[in-house]
Design goal:
single chain, alpha+beta, 4-stranded mixed beta sheet, about 65% helix, binds adenosine-5'-triphosphate, binds magnesium ion
Length: about 700
């Protein structure tokens, strides 16, 4: 047991207390004073020194002296205390003061904040070191629990209180609880090694889940039921219908494709070609004989025409030759005329002689006889030449005559042939005329063949296909949009049918789901029942444990009793931590004296538990006539009894001592205008 005794406590300028010294020397003390004389401030000072907090566990309280609501500057606020810790002295001191800094160039220093000086045994130390020292003596929480009887009940949270109590009494073993309650024998199998609280949390969570599910499932089933169609759907007939519609869609789509890529027209054109071929064969069939004959006649006509041309050419040739020959004859005639003229000229020619009387050589005149001879010779020569010339002309004339005769004979021959050619041509032309008439007749018969119904029907068919091709060409777009419209309708129909199937599938799924949900509902209900049983068992366990625990805890205290669990309206247990005294809960109107004494009782147990004994500050100790026994040092902060409350014998004694009631009262009250510190032995009450 660590024993901490307060030897001395000194306050200077602390919360309005100018100066106060509590010289306890490790003994119990009573500090008397009227209200507002500073009793509580003493305890505040003590706690501030150790933990920087006041008796309300607050840090933001005003330490500095206030006057008229204003802080007085430049004061040092100091608390120091001497302790004996297991007999070893320790002095702690803290001084809180303002810091005033003189800035460069400024005439006066400026207030810049506060600082706290710490010292241990008169040696200044850093705050950290100071705190470590205090912490090494006792932990703050423990110290507060041990020095203030109200701290446990009024300034700690429920969980902290529970934990402290459980720590003090130690937990109850699982097996002890099982042994305590026979009903709990199945619990270990249920827990499977889990902590009871974990299991409870788990099953509570599961229970919530199950509840949610159980709430949700009927709603879901209802929804599903509502979504089921009223009428029964005949799937197989719908499927047949869909197949039909799909086929129609395919056909229409193919039709569109055909139209779009022109194959409809191509098909029609092929059809047309075939029909034309058919027509041709019908025609051939019908015109076969006439055509053949026609061809023959045509050939004859052709032949005859070429014969005519040949004859004509011959006739033309003959005419041409005749004209050439006639021109030759004419030329011969002209030549003969010229010959006749020449003959006449030659025949009429007479001798003329020009005598040359001089010798050409010597130029001398020639003799007469010589001249005669020369004249005879010249005449003879002349006559010879004339007859020769005439003979030549006659000969040439004869040859011309002969040549002309030959020519005339040729002309005659040729001219004789000309009428034959004309006749031939005429007869040929007549023949051609006849043949053409024949051909015309044959053509007429071919024309007749085209009147044949076989032929005309085919022609009609061809015309129809031609019309179709034309209309296909012109109305391809219209046709496409018409078919597309059809397809849209078909698809809408198909969608409706598919929707029916989907609805059927959905309703089947819904029915299955309903069955599943109903099964799930039954399973959950069963699970819920099991969970309830488990919950009941865990609660039984807790109740048993609570019973054991509370009796174990309560056995550790003299006055204080603790309620650690509260039964709720639903029968469940709620963790609480309520201190009671003689059955009265601390939180609901426990009287001040009992609050203090229960607090001291708790401190006594905690002192034993923590192994630390520290001074107890009992504030408002005037409330208690008999403070609970404790071995700890007691610092009681007391408002003295009111003068009028004294028993009559004491009042009379005091009045006679002071001469009058007023004087006696004033004397009594003046005693406590300021704090009076009295040791246990000087207890005023006892004196009185
Ligand atoms: N910083 C301060 N400066 C000056 N006076 C202060 C300061 N803080 C508190 N006081 C005053 O000091 C007085 C002492 O208060 P304290 O609570 O200690 O009195 P008390 O004796 O405990 O009274 P009660 O018997 O009513 O509990 C009060 O009047 C309070 O207003
Ligand atoms: Mg007070």
């Amino acid at each position: 047991m660590k024993n901490i005794k307060l030897l001395n406590l000194t306050l200077k300028n602390f919360k309005g207390i100018k100066s106060l010294e509590l010289d306890a020397s490790g003994n119990d003390l009573k500090v008397y004073g009227d209200n507002a004389t500073g009793k509580t401030s003493i305890f505040d000072g003590f706690l501030w020194l150790l933990f920087n907090k006041d008796s309300n566990n607050k840090t933001n309280f005003s330490i500095k002296t206030l006057e008229g609501g204003k802080e007085i500057n430049n004061l040092e606020h100091e608390v120091s205390a001497s302790f004996a810790v297991d007999g070893v002295p320790l002095t702690l001191r803290k001084v809180y003061k303002e810091t005033w800094t003189k800035k460069r160039g400024a005439p006066i220093p400026e207030f810049t904040g506060h600082e706290t000086d710490h010292s241990i045994d008169g040696v200044p130390v850093k705050k950290k070191e100071y705190e470590e020292k205090v912490g090494s003596i006792v932990k703050e929480e423990v110290f507060k629990l041990l020095t203030n009887p109200l701290y446990f009940n009024e300034q700690t949270k429920m969980d902290e209180r529970r934990n402290t109590l459980l720590e003090v009494c130690g937990d109850i073993d699982f097996e002890d609880v099982l042994a305590f309650n026979e009903e709990l024998k199945d619990l270990p199998a249920i827990l499977k090694g889990r902590a009871i609280e974990d299991h409870r949390k788990m099953i509570a969570a599961r229970k919530t889940e199950i509840n949610k599910e159980l709430e949700r499932i009927p709603v879901r089933i209802d929804e599903l039921n509502n979504s089921l169609p009223d009428a029964i759907i005949d799937i197989s007939s719908i499927e047949v219908e869909i197949a039909k519609v799909e086929k129609e869609i395919d056909a229409s789509s193919a039709q569109i494709n055909n139209i779009k890529n022109g194959s409809a027209i191509t098909a029609k054109q092929n059809e047309l070609r075939q029909l034309e071929m058919d027509l041709e064969s019908i025609k051939r069939e019908l015109e076969a004989d006439a055509t053949e004959q026609g061809h023959k006649v045509q050939a004859r006509i052709q032949e005859e025409r070429s014969n005519i041309s040949i004859i004509q050419r011959k006739a033309d040739d003959a005419k041409h030759q005749v004209s050439i020959l006639q021109k030759d004859v004419q030329r011969l005639d002209e030549k003969m005329n010229d010959l006749r003229a020449s003959w006449t000229i030659v025949d009429a020619g007479s001798f003329h002689h020009t005598e040359q009387c001089e010798c050409p050589t010597c130029g001398q005149s020639l003799p007469e006889e010589q001249l005669q001879e020369a004249r005879n010779k010249a005449l003879e020569a002349f006559n010879l030449k004339k007859s020769s010339e005439l003979e030549n002309i006659s000969k040439l004339g004869v040859s011309y005559k002969e040549e002309k005769a030959v020519l005339l004979e040729k002309i005659e021959k040729l001219e004789k042939r000309l009428p034959t050619h004309t006749d031939d041509i005429q007869s040929k032309e007549k023949l051609i005329e006849k043949l053409e008439a024949e051909l015309q007749q044959l053509r007429e018969s071919i024309k007749d063949a085209r009147q044949d119904p076989k032929y005309t029907d085919k022609q009609q068919e061809i015309q129809q296909v031609k019309d179709e091709i034309e209309s296909l060409k012109s109305s391809a777009n219209e046709a496409v949009s018409a078919i597309e419209k059809e397809i849209v309708e078909l698809k809408a129909n198909r969608s409706e049918l598919n929707a029916s199937i989907a609805q059927h599938t959905q309703s089947e799924a819904s029915k299955k789901r309903i069955a599943e949900l109903e099964e799930q509902q039954a399973e959950l209900a069963k699970e819920f029942e099991n969970i309830e049983k488990e919950l009941y068992l865990t609660e039984s366990f807790i109740r048993s444990k609570v019973e054991l625990l509370e009796s174990k805890i309560n056995s550790k205290f003299k006055y204080a009793r603790f309620k650690l669990f509260e039964t709720q309206i639903n029968g469940g247990l709620k963790e609480v931590c309520e201190t009671t005294f003689e059955g009265v809960p601390y939180s609901s109107g426990l009287n001040n004296a009992a609050r203090i004494n229960v607090g001291i009782d708790i401190i006594n147990t905690l002192t034993e538990h923590f192994g630390i004994r520290a001074p107890i500050f009992v504030d408002n100790a005037e409330a208690v006539t008999k403070i609970a026994d404790t071995e700890s040092q007691l610092i009681s902060l007391v408002v003295p009894q009111s003068f009028d409350n004294f028993p009559k014998n004491i009042l009379d004694m005091l009045i006679s001592e002071h001469g009058s009631y007023e004087k006696a009262k004033e004397a009594w009250e003046s005693n406590y205008k300021q704090l009076r510190i009295e040791s246990q032995s000087n207890d005023m009450k006892e004196a009185i």
